[in-house]
Structures are given as structure tokens and as C-alpha cells.
Amino acid sequence: MQENSTFNHGADIVSSAIRFTSAWFKQSKAIIEELSDFFILPGGKIVEKQVIISRLKGIFGQSDEYVGGRYDIIDTHFELLSGGKGMGFVEGVAGFRAVLKKESKIVSGPFKLYFALQNGHWKIVNIEFPGFAY
Predict the structure, then answer these.
(1) In terms of DSSP bridges, do strands 103-118 and 46-48 run parallel, antiparallel, or are they unpaired?
(2) From which domain of life does this come (predicted)?
(3) What pLDDT, in 10s, does the model give residues 76-89?
(4) Which of 1, 10, 83, 108 could form a disulfide with 120 if both were Cys (CB 3.0 to 4.6 A apart)?
(5) What pLDDT was estimated at residue 2?
(6) 3-state SS, one letter per residue, for the chain
């Protein structure tokens, strides 16, 4: 990531959200590249990345595939803090068809991905996504 004032942090977190969403629809292991080493849940609870990865594997294992994934990003916001840190989010709506043994169901709803700027990179620190639950 560039370290100058012209770097577009908003575009960077949107790009990360797009990569996350695309990896979600493909049930791809590439999804873990967008995740922070630690997640911050409501109430200040801290969860390690490996716990989130295990949860994602469990969710992906419930369906043979996701079909027709679509999303719309509605809003994005970030705030730069001192010491090269920052926080932000991307929110929108997403939907896909989860297929298991020739039967399918539509999964859709709002999403919000929370980000933290760590070591010059925006990483996801909390997920609210259709079909995902802690």
C-alpha cells in the first residue's frame, strides 16, 4: 500500500470487500487473505483468525455450491487514526442460491464488513454477511 496522502483508502477497502465477496461465492480459500489475525466482536470479544476460518469452512460445507452470487455496495466509510491505524466499513446487500444435492435455497440480506488498517493494509475484523453467524 502506498504511504502518501493521495492513496485512496475508500477504494482499497471496497476492493477488499469485492475480493471477500467473490471468494465467498466461489467458496474459495482465497477468502482468508482478506481477514485480520484477530476479529473484534460486539462486547469487545476478541476471536482468532483460525476460529473464523473454521467457521467459514463449516458454513461452506453445508452446500455443494453457491450459484448466482450478486451484491451491491451501498456505503463505505473509513477513518484514519494516529500511528498509521484506521477503521472503516463497507456495507450493502448480497444474495446467492445455496445448492445441496439438487435442492437449493436463496440466501440474501444486508452485509457489513468491518475493517482495520494494520501494518499498511486494510483487513476485515468483523463480518455480518448472509449465511454467516458466529
Answers:
(1) unpaired
(2) Bacteria
(3) 999 999 988 999 99
(4) 1
(5) 43
(6) CCCCCCCCHHHHHHHHHHHHHHHHHHCCHHHHHHECCEEECHHHCEEEHHHHHHHHHHHHCCCCEEEEEEEEEEEEEEEECHHHCEEEEEEEEEEEEEEECCEEEEEEEEEEEEEEEECCEEEEEEEECCCCCC
Residue 133 forms part of a structural domain: no
Residue 102 pLDDT level (bands cut at 50, 70, 90): confident
Q: Residue 88 maps to which CATH number?
A: 3.10.450.50
Cell of 78: 473509513
In a domain, 4, yes or no: no
Residue 57's identity, in one-letter code, is K
Residue tagged 502506498 (cell numbers): 2
